[in-house]
Specification:
alpha+beta, FAD/NAD(P)-binding domain, D-Amino Acid Oxidase, Chain A, domain 2, eight-stranded mixed sheet, 9 helices, 27% strand
């Protein structure tokens, strides 16, 4: 048995960021991961996530601005880029580009509102039929490299990192907690931060948390999402494509340059929350849904003429959603629970680590909208 002041469970983006921030502040930290950081069956693997500013709520936009500063500091310490500058587009009747532009303007985020004609002239590979919001400061996040950079920085600040260490039990003791893993391994800790992503539904009920906290915890919908890579047509190669979110009545799609995940040959395209609910990451099948593939291929055929509508690679990934798509960063009695996915958490990683470290150490309370009870307990 070994001990640590702070135990962080889960080495995805949220857990790695939390461990880094705690270690950066001089705290004794142990980070445990059931397999390895940025595990391929989790939510933080791969090289292609969207960094964008456009939100309908001003406080989210302000958080993106803070997260961008966090990424710049992380890149400085890491010594290599983790974001690839890539303009970000929002369009379609479900996105209300003009309203999003007003929010960005109120925060001072650079943006431009383009007519359909102007957007088609700039990006002829897209079939645009309405106003388009362009955020020049957008980017593509290398999620896996970001996790590994934060884990390395945590280690450099003295954190201990244990891989192949699945949490199977957590017991309250006179001095804090004893966390138990397989093969009889255990760790004593004064405070525990649980960043288990899609595995949280399996763990939550077994954590020694007050009944009222557990009953108020929002319902978590773990989805096995599908993502497809479509090859570029020769006249629109890698490097000329923006990221985009397009919402029309029949489908909401996000797309971005696929990066090294698919050999830089094409655009990654997916239907937002188009996968099936699976209850927990432990029930992920890894099987792509043929009906979802058909919907996305049809979308590409109609709306992305710069792509060949035949996927050359496909995969599944995990979204862990709350009913409002807000994050959860809250805790009580020595346990902090962090579940910041909801399909849009990657861009906030450095900031979420700061917030989680504040909550874990008592330095500051979490934002009110991320508290248990602020997010509805039912969907």
């Amino acid at each position: 048995m070994s001990g640590s002041r702070h135990l962080v469970v889960g080495a995805g983006l949220a857990g790695a960021a939390t461990a880094w921030q705690l270690a950066e502040r001089g705290h004794e930290v142990t980070l445990v991961e059931r397999t390895e950081p940025a595990a391929r069956d989790g939510s933080s693997h791969g090289s292609a996530r969207i960094f964008r500013y456009a939100y309908a709520e001003r406080d989210y936009v302000e958080m993106v601005v803070r997260a961008a500063a966090g990424f710049r500091e992380l890149e400085r310490l890491h010594g290599a880029p983790l974001l690839t500058p890539t303009g970000a587009l929002d369009h379609g009747p479900g996105r209300d580009a003009r309203a999003l532009a007003r929010v960005l303007g109120s925060v001072g985020v650079e943006h431009e509102l383009l007519s359909a004609e102007a957007a088609r002239a700039r990006w002829p590979q897209l079939a645009v039929d309405g106003e388009v919001l362009h955020q020049p400061g957008g980017a593509v996040i290398d999620a896996e490299s970001t996790v590994r950079a934060m884990v390395a920085l945590a280690r450099a600040r003295g954190a201990r990192v244990l891989t192949g260490w699945p949490l199977v039990g957590l017991e309250r003791t006179a001095t804090g907690f004893t966390a138990r893993s397989t093969r009889g391994r255990s760790i004593d800790a004064g405070h525990v931060v649980v960043c288990a992503g899609g595995w949280l539904p399996d763990l939550l009920g077994g954590l020694p948390l007050p009944r009222g906290f557990l009953e108020a915890f929002p319902a978590l919908d773990v989805r096995e999402e599908n993502a497809f890579h479509f090859p570029y047509r020769d006249e629109h190669p890698h490097g000329t494509w923006p990221t985009l979110i397009h919402t029309i009545p029949e489908i909401q799609v996000y797309a971005l340059p696929g990066g090294r995940d698919a050999a830089f040959r094409g655009q990654k395209v997916a239907e937002y929350n188009g996968g099936r609910s699976i209850g927990s990451a432990s029930r992920r099948s890894g099987a792509v849904d043929p009906a979802n593939r058909e919907r996305v291929v049809d979308y590409v055929r109609r709306h992305l003429p710069g792509l060949v509508p035949e996927p050359y690679a496909e995969t599944t990934c995990l979204f862990t959603n709350t009913p409002t798509e807000d994050f959860v960063i809250d805790g009580t009695d020595g346990i902090t629970v962090v579940s910041p996915c909801s399909g849009h958490g990657a861009k906030f990683a450095p900031l979420l680590g700061e917030v989680a470290a504040d909550v874990a150490t008592g330095a500051a309370a979490p934002p009110e909208r991320f508290r248990v009870g602020a997010v509805p307990a039912g969907s």
